[in-house]
Design goal:
The protein has 248 residues and is of the alpha/beta class. 43% of the residues lie in helices and 15% in strands. The chain has one domain: 3-Layer(aba) Sandwich (Rossmann fold).
Length: 248
C-alpha cells in the first residue's frame, strides 16, 4: 500500500517530530500548518536532506472548506492518503469555566473536535474500499486531560479531548471491517511551544517535580507511539489509546 501521510499541525512540536520519524520509515509526508510557514518549510527541508519526501500545505483544519482544499492539494501533490494524524490542536489561557466565553469554547471545539472529525471524513473518502481506497490508518492526538479534566485550568480543552476519545472509539468500530484502523495517543506534559497558549510557557519545567517519572516528556517520545500505531506493526490494534504521561 502507498504510504502517504497527512499530519495536521506538523510544523512544530509533536506533529513535526512525527513527520520526521514517519519520513525516515518511508512515508511520503504532507505537513499541514496554520500560520508558521517558515517552521513548516524547515521540517520539510530536514526530511528532504535525509532523502525523504515532504510537502507543506497551509490550511485551518477548523474549517471544512479549507480541509477540502487541503485534501485536494494532497491528492494532486502526494497522492491518495493512506495515513492521517489528527494532531493540530489548541488551548486557551488558564481560566475557571464561569469566566470562559462562548467564542473561546467554540474555537476549542472547532479546532480539537470538529476539525479531526472532518479530516477523518475526508480521509475515509480516500481510504475506504467502498470509495475506491485500499484501507488506511488514523491516529488522533488526544491528551491525558481527557481523563483528568484539567479543573481550574482548561476544562473546555479537556472536554474537547474527551470528545476526541469517544470519536476514536466509535469510528474505530464503524470502519474496523473495512481496512481502516483508528487509534489515539494521550500525551501528558510534553516540552513544546503549546503551553505558551495557556499563558505559561514554562509549565512543563515547573510541574516536572509533581510527575511520577519526575520529568516532562519529549515530542520524539510521543512520535514513536504515533508512528507505531500508524504502522502495520499495530495491525490488530484499533480503538485503543496509548498514554504518554510519564505515569500521570
Ligand atoms: P504546538 O507545538 O503548539 O504545535 C501545534 C501545531 O498545530 C502547529 O503546527 C500549528 O500550526 C498547528 N495548528 C494549530 N491550530 C491549527 C489549525 N486550526 N489548523 C491547522 N494547524 C493548526 O503543539 P503540540 O504541543 O505539538 O501539540 C500537538 C497536539 O498534542 C495538540 O492536539 C495538543 O492538544 C496535544 N497535546 C499536547 C501536549 C503537550 O504537553 N504539548 C499534551 C497533551 C496533548 P502553526 O505552527 O502554523 O501555528
Amino acid at each position: 500500500m502507498d504510504k502517504n501521510l497527512l499530519i495536521t499541525g506538523g510544523s512544530r512540536g509533536i506533529g513535526a517530530a512525527t513527520a520526521v520519524l514517519a519520513a525516515s520509515q518511508g512515508y511520503r509526508v504532507c505537513i499541514n500548518y496554520l500560520s508558521d510557514h517558515a517552521a513548516a518549510e524547515r521540517v520539510c527541508h530536514q526530511i528532504r536532506e535525509s532523502g525523504g519526501h515532504a510537502i507543506a500545505i497551509q490550511a485551518d483544519v477548523s474549517n471544512e472548506d479549507e480541509i477540502i482544499r487541503l485534501f485536494a492539494k494532497v491528492d494532486a501533490e502526494l497522492g491518495r492518503v493512506s495515513a492521517l494524524v489528527n494532531n493540530a490542536g489548541t488551548v486557551a489561557e488558564q481560566s475557571r469555566v464561569e469566566h470562559m466565553s462562548e467564542f473561546r469554547m467554540l474555537k476549542i471545539m472547532m479546532s480539537n473536535v470538529v476539525g479531526p472529525m472532518l479530516c477523518s471524513k475526508h480521509a475515509l473518502l480516500r481510504m475506504l474500499p467502498r470509495h475506491g481506497g485500499r484501507g488506511g490508518s488514523i491516529v488522533n492526538v488526544s491528551s491525558v486531560a481527557a481523563r483528568l479534566g484539567s479543573p481550574g485550568e482548561y476544562v473546555d480543552y479537556a472536554a474537547s479531548k474527551g470528545a476526541l476519545d469517544t470519536f476514536t472509539l466509535g469510528l474505530a468500530k464503524e470502519v474496523a471491517g473495512e481496512g481502516v484502523r483508528v487509534n489515539a495517543v494521550r500525551p501528558g506534559y510534553i516540552f513544546t511551544d503549546f503551553h505558551a497558549l495557556s499563558g505559561d510557557p514554562q509549565r512543563v519545567s515547573k510541574l516536572e517535580p509533581t510527575l511520577p517519572m519526575g520529568r516532562g516528556g519529549l515530542a520524539d517520545e510521543v512520535a514513536e507511539a504515533i508512528v507505531w500505531l500508524l504502522s502495520d506493526k499495530a495491525s490488530y490494534s484499533t480503538g485503543t489509546f496509548i498514554d504518554l504521561g510519564g505515569g500521570r
